[in-house]
Specification:
Blueprint lengths: L16 E6 L17 E2 L2 E2 H16 L3 E7 L4 H10 L5 E6 L4 H12 L11 E4 L9 H13 L2 E7 L5 E5 L2 H5 L12 E6 L6 E10 H14 L6 H7 L5 E4 L10 H14 L1
Parallel strand pairs: 1-4, 1-6, 4-5, 7-11
Antiparallel strand pairs: 2-3, 6-10, 7-10, 8-9
């Protein structure tokens, strides 16, 4: 049985929304020399499209939206220019990130503490990939509803594919005469097939009450806990993480194929 998802986008918006946007992708897998955040999708840079979604949310709901963009040092001026060009006044600070995503998010948390409107304990903080530029308003509203109701939430979609866990092929076995034909040293072997009905692919936004995000980040740093997923830190520290029904269109622009798919999705709306 699949776990229940937060699907109701109707909520009384009481808290402010803070958004930390990690945007330091270098575009290596895109095969481009510049940051993928500046790659244009249907004529608009990836990062601009991402930020426009939050700007639209603020305008449509009347909510105050406070955004911190975390990027690399070389991109600071270019991100600032982008926010001016596209009239993105929701971006209140642009800061340099760290060596890892986790470090960069920590930089973002410290930055929102220096804004003119400092977040209260129950204000809602999204962490959203700068490269997820197809974020829709319904998903943002469901995330806000989830953040109002729970301490930690994550956007996710049911896994479409069959997933198998694997183990390394033992070198000695691979070299033995009894090893199956075609099995070479270092090959991976299937350990088991996982129950797809219980598997979800995690996206962003990842959603926290501010007091919980701050505590999770500080404790993870103090205890040396590392994770590539922000809510995984909360899991490691014992916080329940609730799922929010995401969209299969909320893709992350990582490869050239992703850019083509994003262009197609946008063309369907024209």
């Amino acid at each position: 049985m699949q776990p229940p998802l937060i699907t109701n986008a109707q909520v009384i918006f009481q808290q402010d929304l803070y958004v930390i946007v990690p945007a330091a992708g270098l575009g290596t897998r895109m095969g481009i020399s510049e940051s993928k955040q500046f790659l244009k999708i249907a004529g608009i840079p990836v990062l601009a499209r991402t930020l426009q979604a939050f700007s639209e949310f603020g305008k449509s709901t009347g909510k105050a939206v406070h955004v911190v963009v975390v990027t690399n040092e070389d991109a600071l001026d270019r991100v600032a220019a982008l926010t001016r060009e596209y009239d993105l006044d929701i971006v209140e600070k642009i800061v340099i990130g760290g060596a890892t995503r986790q470090d960069s998010v920590a930089c973002g948390i410290r930055a929102i503490e220096t804004l003119s409107r400092v977040p209260g304990p129950l204000d809602i903080v999204f962490i959203h990939d700068g490269a997820r530029c197809l974020l829709d308003q319904d998903t943002i509203k469901k995330c806000f509803a989830g953040g109002a109701a729970h301490q930690v939430c994550v956007t996710a979609t049911p896994c479409k594919n069959t997933i198998k866990s694997v183990v390394p092929q033992d070198t000695a076995e691979a070299k033995s005469a009894e090893a199956p034909a075609g099995v070479a040293s270092g090959d991976l072997l299937v350990e088991k097939t996982l129950d797809r009905s219980l598997l979800y692919e995690v996206q962003t936004p990842q959603v926290f009450k501010y007091c919980i995000l701050k505590e999770v980040s500080e404790k993870a740093q103090a205890q040396g806990i590392q994770a590539t997923d922000d809510t995984a830190l909360a899991e490691a520290l014992g916080y329940p993480v609730h799922l929010i029904a995401g969209s299969y269109r909320n893709i992350k622009i990582t490869t050239p194929e992703d850019a083509v798919i994003a262009e197609y999705f946008l063309s369907e709306k024209l």
